[in-house]
Structures
1.
Amino acid sequence: MSELAIQTVDLLRRYGKYTAVNKLNLTIATGSIFGFLGPNGAGKTTTLRMLAGLLEPSSGQVFLHGQLIQKTSTAAAIVGYMPDFFGVYDDLRVWEYLDFYARCHGIEPAKRKSTVDGLLDLVDLSDKRNAFVQHLSRGMQQRLCLAHALVHDPKILLLDEPASGLDPQARVELRELLRTLRDMGKTIILSSHILNELEDICTNFGIMARGQLLAQGSLETLRQRSRPALQIKVLDDLERAMRLIGAQSGVLRVLEPAEETPNLIEVEFDGNEQQASQLLLNLARAELPIADFHREDDSLERLFLQLVNDHVTEEQL
Amino acid sequence: MSNRAASRRWSLQPNPIVVKELRSRMRGGRAFILLTGFLLGLGLVGYGLFLRATSGQNNGAPIFSAQVGQTLFAGLAFMLLFLVILIAPAVTVGAISSERERLTYEMLIATNLPSHRLLWGKLISALSYIALLLLAAIPLGSIVFLFGGITLSHVIQAAVIIVLSAITSAMLGIWASAMTGKTGRAAVVSYVIIGLVLGGFLFGAEIWTNRTTDPVPTGLLAPNPISALASSLGTLSGPGSGGGITTMRAFEAIPMAAGGGPGWWPGSNPFSNTGLNFPGWRTFSIGIYPATDQFGPDGMPIIAEPRSVWRITIIILIMACLGFFWMALHAVKPRRRWWPTWGDAAMLSVTSLSLLGLGFWIGWWFR
């Protein structure tokens, strides 16, 4: 158990009759960067809050480095937590802000200044040391908030949507910072809906939907669960196209187009290249306006959508 | 780190909340504007009281310096009581809820800072500002000593009542803030409770005195800091002035000067129980002076010694503070558990026994 940074056993959290997290069994190895994926309301934030000791599970257990978490203070010593929506004390200067959290963690006065200076250096805010927090840009505030979570040198970092609201440049900077932290030996758990960002940096992933963990493991492990697919963009007559596609050999399932891409039909397909070619030919013969036809890659995003769609379909059945 | 080591480490360091709050509270002009307004208000009220206390001179009535001092002291004490009771919740209603509203609460409770230190920090930083106001008022208040008529025991009693009322009021604000989670709602809850305690009990006592000649029940007087302060200040004049040597000398002197009877007869004595010459005194002291069936030579009823309800009020305020603190402590914990722990039970037992012991030892309950 000591090799695991985090282990949850049948972790369950209910709000009245609503089950936000349902019997979650999560294992995260020490030193990994774990990407927590899931649509809104999947239970990611609830899970992170329970891991941080901020929310009491309705049942189940959380172990952090083998230690059962029953009190917030136990988790606080091990975990640095950065919530998805965070505020800052506008009327404090940048160094005062970190100094405050250093005091809250009981860091001795002799070490406090070097801790604050070191963190400002790490998040590249040394030149803003005496600026008021309210005068920082969103990206700088995000980095400052990350620094606050590191002030007591925790073994585990829980970052809830750390990249939300950041411009591309700030995201790149944040990614670099996370890599640095990984090199420092921290175990990092971050939730995000920007899947390609996670793909670049995370070593392991967990996919959640409706409170349940659908899959977890490395990208390679998850890819083994993915089914090949085709994406077909049809400009008109979508229903006829879907009927026709569904009747072709090699087609396992035709998924309803997503709201944001109403002309894009995703097809689960386990046929060979000849069958794919025949499918395209049949669509053309039916005079359907095909704008795009290609095999889908094994991206995290597709895997994520596939698992979530499967789960929703299972629940509906 | 063991709990004992952690608590030893905490005890050696200043409270982080106090450090932060003091850093940010004293930035900008808000704190200084309030302080200036407070002192100006207090100064104007003091000047008004002085004019009122000396207005009798225009009619040729003798005015003694002690009378002016007593009126000034009592008026300023009530003014201070009202101000601190009203200002303290204003400073504390956002203590917890503002952390929630500006989304810093989770980050705060995710630290190693124990909940009780969080609350203490909020309370101490709020009270330090109230203390600043009270300290700033000392030079103004000390003017009363130039006039005389006040004893040290009166000053201490009034100070204890005012300070305890301020702490309770601040604690009420913190409790409301922790329970409601919204600053606006916490302010409404706090001021409704304060209004009910200050006005409601006075109103109840007023109805009681209008309906019956029986003494107003202690339960209607003791929970109210106004009645408590009135009962303490009531001994400034008249019988039972509680060792107020200066006061007694002044009272003894008046009837002779005015050609009246003994000093404790209200009809002839301008320094009698009803003689504290400022607006509201009559209302504030409802039920404090029990009616007697004895009459003086001038046919006016003799006013009995004022009831010392302030002693019970002190106990009530301390218990209220502890109660609010306990509830707030449970409300700020991320994992709320409302059933009392052994620590809670031990704290309640020790506090109750200490207060009871103190009460029996000096006979407070029965005086």
Note: The interface with chain B takes residues 49, 52-56, 71-73, 75-77, 79, 81-83, 85-89, 91-92, 96, 100-101, 103-106, 108-109, 145, 148, 152 of chain A (CB under 8 Å).
2.
Amino acid sequence: MALVLNEDEVMLRDTAEGFFAEKAPIKALRSLRDERDETGFDRGLWAEMAEMGFTGVVIDEDHGGVDMGFMAAGLIAEQMGRNLSASPFLSTAILAATAIREGGTDEQKSEWLPKIAGGEAIIALALDEGPKHHPAGTSATAEKSGNGFKLSGAKAMVVDGHVADALIIAARTSGDEGDAEGISLFIVDPKSKGVSTERTIMVDSRNAARIDLDDVEVSGDALLGSLDDGMAVLGKVLNAGRAAVAAELLGAGSQAFESTVSYIKERKQFGSIIGEFQALQHRASHLYSEMEIARSAVMGALTALDNNDPKAELYCAMAKAKLGSVAKLASQEGVQMHGGVGMTDEYDIGLFMKRIRVLQELFGDAHYHMNQFALANRF
Amino acid sequence: MSDLKAFAAEVREWLEANCPEEMRKPITGDKDLCWGGRNWEFQSDAQKVWLDRMVAKGWTVPTWPKEYGGAGLSRAEEIILKKEMARIGARSPLSSFGIWMLGPALLKFGTEEQKLEHLPPVARGEIRWCQGYSEPSAGSDLASLATKCEDKGDHFMVNGQKVWTSYADKADWIFCLVRTDNTGKKHHGISFVLFDMETPGVEARPIKLISGRSPFCETFFEDVRVEKKNLVGTRDRGWDVAKYLLTHEREMIGGQGQLEGQGRPLHEIAAGSLGIEDGKLADPMLRSKVAEAEIDDWAFSLTVSRKLAEAKAGASLGADSSMLKYYGTELNKRKYELMMDATGHDGLEWESDRSNDGKLARSWLRTKGNSIEGGTSEVQLNIISKHILQLPGA
């Protein structure tokens, strides 16, 4: 596996680096937060991301995308992580785009993919229900009703669910809670009767929703992918989501690390720059090493997805597990090495700690993926 | 790409025809390695045949120029060769400090005459080299070394002592750091010289380690005569050579876990010892540590290939060799601790046939040296602090 960026990828990374640093820096997140923005991100930014082609990064050209693949998507996510840029990139451009591309009928693809690529639709994945990521634990139900289905249940941590133009809802059409089989996916209009949405502002000032489904009627063509076999599509969606989140963690962790190293080169105590103290030098150097290992894990996962590697799922689990721990370490060491100012809202390091904590949790934390890794290796 | 594909096909065909079956079995211990040298006794005919055939192709040192015994392969071709060898489980035909450490240093700093004299015998496995670096008072602080090298007109005379000289008792020649000047700063006045271990005044005494094995020696020099033509690089500037060579040593040590990783995976060893219940390793606490170590191991091996690929693309590995050495050795120690945890009482046996003479316990103890030799983990962290993070005073 060659883990070196090609020329196109280097160019994209540089473009994304400049774009997010200019258009969506950390202070943009601060104003969204402080002004209690209703959307929680800047729709103008999202439109510009569409112009740049970022929204259609994993959508094919026939449907208005640029089809640059997951490595490209990861490079964009990494830069968003560095700048804590708020946008529906993960929910819409990665999760929904992958779900519809992989599971959609021609009609569904024609309806939604151009809108995603054009920045005209925001789509959120409503999967998890309890406090921890657990796809097989889906208990929301979809009962046959006439030619369509009737959905009931409650979803939590629906990223961007508060502003979604459509929801992709995982619901059980057969089997019991805990079964991977028997889950189906549906594309649902959040304005449908019986859908109630509560915006949940999270610790990182980003937004998700709790969504209650009370006998929500949908037509038969709302089904996305095969009946009872939603996991076939969901598996690919989650792989993409985990790799993209790992890439964002890499960006956030790298930025937290680098700004911490800058800080300890400036801060003076006991008449010395604190970066002269070996107690800090060794911890910083250890963290550097972990960040390098983490970068390889992310690149490995993104490459595996682009190559349709049969071990892609395992690669993504590895990357999500590794980044969950390493980015957390970067944020913890970051706050500690900043000392008192690390606890203030004025310094950015705390914002990184918050974003990293959310990303750690999304689509399975390190423990979840260590367990998956072990099960896949039969131990 | 088609050239590389053709090369891969050619390599595959040649290996199939020329790698003896016996040389495709996993390495079970030091005894299976071929070190070469004047006094080498081949473990089997297959070991000799394999070495001879690989030497004839120049593939013991595939990227070295042909005139020095190599095959002049590009880095990409070398990777293909390694992959094809790995595919059939082919053993390395030759383990050699001459290849891993002296070779790169001579290729960079040696004169044409020195390269022609010393490199081909290394490539053919005829001369076995050892490294004279550390001294009793110069370990982590290597530059404070004191082995004296006096200019006697037409030759040098060396007096002093080295320690941790790997296999000095079995080596034919030594590459050695000596002090030619002690009037300036400690990094100045060091020189890099080569001499035959059979020269009068050289004595190597094995050191018994906690593993019960003796891969290292104390090596003493008393009025040892060294020819002037055997000074490598500029006199008093041997530290440049030493540093360059150390980066290669670090890469080698950092990669050791990888080589051993070709054996049974940690989780299989753990499962064999503790059993599987409901599809999971029976000890749930250990299970998560095993999973974590294997994830780190996988990400680390991706990092080794990423860093090598970056170096191929023109970037220098530089101080990142310290990162690889630090991470790889610490990870290797962690894996062996987990193997000891997993095997419990069985892993403690030291002399039985059942335990292959305490192979695991001895290997576990051996790994403790990984993060000491070639610069301790703490020294590697200092190097990262200084050269990569550019922290003040590092």
Note: Residues 284-312 of chain B form the longest helix (29 residues).
